[in-house]
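step: validate -> pass
step: tokenize input -> pass
step: predict -> running
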Amino acid sequence: MSARDRMSAREIRAGVSLASIFGLRMLGLFLILPVFAVHARALPGGADPAAVGLALGIYGLTQACLQIPFGVAADRLGRKPVIVAGLLLFAAGSVIAARAEDLAWLTVGRAVQGAGAISAAATALLADCTRDEHRTQAMAMVGAAIGLAFASSLIGGPPLYAAVGLDGMFYLTALLALAAIVVVLWVVPEAPPRIARDPSLRWRDVVLEGELLRLNVGNFTLHAVQMAMFVVVPAMLVERGLPLAQHGWIYLPVVLASFALMMPAIAVAERRGRQRALLLGAIRLLAVVQAGLGWLAPSVPWLAAWLLLFFVGFNILEATLPSLVSRLAPAAHKGLALGAYGTTQSIGLFVGGAAGGWLARHFGAGGVFVCAAAALAAWAIVASGMRAPPARRRARTSAQHAGYDAAAAPAFSDIGDDKWPRSTR
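step: predict -> pass
step: emit ->
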């Protein structure tokens, strides 16, 4: 491989360190999922299932409300200060939840956790520190960290709860957030100098721009389908003879294998400029998976096979979508664009959970998969009109100015910048 085809040492450092921040934060969140509802029912106020659901889900609501403000703040104040502030909020919410003596205070703690909405700022920093031709691979590192955190939590959450209780798990979550701050301050590379904002470019010019809106609609659909699907998949595994306590032993190898399968596809697509084809192929794969889960899943091995294909497609899209958003957004407004992207993800998770529960109640698991397949087919139609990203060209700034090794050659390419005012580039 030529120097241009390889990630530089700085890019690898940025990808690994920011992936570890996402992983530490998400591990703290995911660890409580297998045990939260059981513990909450024993608290004062926990007899109401709706209140328990609110305590669990309010994290996503506050995060959805604050993704865009945090993204805008990252554009104006810098990436690292906003990330550190968000992690401090997350740690504070974890301590509040750990000390909660009733469900109301537990709900407050979860809301404060969600207020630390750092996803847009962290993703924008990763985009700042990587060249276009390697950005999807860097985003895939983040997806891998999150996937591993999720699978590990399903295995480790119940025994950890038995050892330290839910309050101990929340204190551990706070410590993980503080560890992530150390990584931000002393391991993550510094971003290149910020580009001056164009005051004439309004927020809706970015959030409602056609190509970015197309990607955000896809992001909403992807996470709505994911949440709806996992409303019914655990029950299907139980019905086919796999106890709930053993589900993690399916998810972990499936997630690991999916990363091994998806990384070569991403690398080839990046080298050959086939990101659009990769995105459309992954959407179609997920639609096939939903049909297969609905009509051809008679045993645990079949379910595991469909889950493997699901995670291959899902992880490709988790890496490709934010990479394209960061490349198509104006350089001075990446935080805003990624904040809008993160908001659609949070809303999709909420809508998918609610819709999946309603569909499962009235139409069974088959109804969930039919509707999920239909949503993915509609997304494929919308995405088919997406323009292929323009061919990469040499950036205006030198590799040395951007902070890369000279051997890495061209630094950032300005894909998509020609449609934005010059002062935003």
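step: describe -> The domain at 205-386 is CATH 1.20.1250.20 (Growth Hormone; Chain: A;).
step: cleanup -> pass
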